């Protein structure tokens, strides 16, 4: 039996769906049933991702992030990496930190955004006993409320052209809302995260894209970490907690 060439395999697998460039210049995924696949041939030229929606959301009014000192940032991130991301891994630490430190005055880049940072701080605040992280210093259950509110506001804009960090922020907000007894919104945010993840093609193997130079190894890692984090959150963590079928 003749052995199929790499080209033949590529042609066959491409019929199962394909990457394309979506809103904001980010990579998105189109399934094989989509007529939009007829408009493309091969991997389209990659444009630089636009963060105009995130920038607009961040600059409309003063941000709670403006009041976060370097010491408080270090405290919250340490709590997040130690107590949250260690068991429910959604954020790839090294790429996130590299992007965060690129422009501390406005942390929006490939792997970070205002909504993601606020969501991480909101959840990390739950592990802190610092009164200044609470909207009511006497009520520990209000820890992180200001961060969560800003993250949700930013998502209104970011969902117009979601990025990987948008997916991560939504998944983390899901965990945070469930933790503060907002089960309905927590379940909804989880579903949103999974839908956006599939839309961006995070569930696909990107090894060929990395090999062909169409995607960096960092992006492939972040995509994989984010997808499996959402998958575990949806199929196991919340599905078991609520006794419901996942997305």
Automatic annotation (TrEMBL):
Q: Which GO terms describe its molecular function?
A: DNA binding; zinc ion binding
- Name the Gene Ontology biological process terms: DNA-templated transcription
Q: Which residues form the Xylanolytic transcriptional activator regulatory domain?
A: 77-241
- InterPro entries recorded for this chain? Transcr_Regulatory_Elem, XnlR_reg_dom
Q: Does the keyword RNA-binding apply?
A: no
Q: Which keywords are on file for this protein? A: DNA-binding, Metal-binding, Nucleus, Transcription, Transcription regulation, Zinc
User: Pfam families attached here?
Assistant: Fungal_trans (PF04082)
Q: Does Transcription regulation count among this protein's keywords? A: yes
Q: Which PANTHER family match?
A: TY1 ENHANCER ACTIVATOR, ZN(II)2CYS6 TRANSCRIPTION FACTOR (EUROFUNG)
State the protein's name: Nitrogen assimilation transcription factor nirA
Question: Whose protein is this, by species?
Answer: Diplodia seriata
What lineage is on file? Eukaryota, Fungi, Dikarya, Ascomycota, Pezizomycotina
């Amino acid at each position: 039996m003749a052995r199929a060439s790499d080209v033949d395999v590529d042609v066959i697998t491409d019929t199962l769906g394909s990457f394309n460039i979506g809103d904001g210049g980010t990579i998105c995924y189109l399934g094989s049933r989509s007529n939009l696949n007829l408009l493309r041939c091969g991997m389209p030229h990659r444009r630089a991702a636009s963060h105009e929606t995130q920038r607009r959301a961040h600059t409309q009014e003063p941000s709670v992030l403006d009041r976060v000192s370097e010491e408080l940032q270090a405290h919250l991130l340490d709590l997040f990496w130690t107590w949250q991301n260690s068991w429910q891994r959604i954020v790839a630490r090294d790429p996130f930190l590299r992007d965060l430190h690129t422009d501390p005055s406005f942390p929006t880049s490939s792997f970070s955004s205002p909504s993601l940072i606020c969501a991480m701080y909101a959840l990390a605040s739950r592990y802190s006993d610092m009164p200044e992280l609470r909207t009511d210093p006497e009520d520990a259950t209000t820890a992180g409320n200001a961060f969560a509110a800003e993250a949700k506001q930013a998502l209104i804009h970011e969902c117009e052209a979601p990025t990987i960090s948008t997916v991560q922020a939504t998944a983390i907000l899901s965990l945070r809302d469930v933790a503060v007894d907002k089960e309905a919104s927590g379940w909804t945010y989880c579903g949103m995260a999974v839908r956006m993840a599939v839309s961006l093609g995070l569930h696909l193997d990107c090894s060929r894209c990395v090999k062909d130079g169409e995607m960096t190894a960092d992006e492939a890692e972040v995509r994989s970490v984010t997808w499996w984090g959402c998958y575990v959150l949806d199929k196991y963590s919340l599905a078991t907690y609520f006794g419901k079928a996942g997305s």
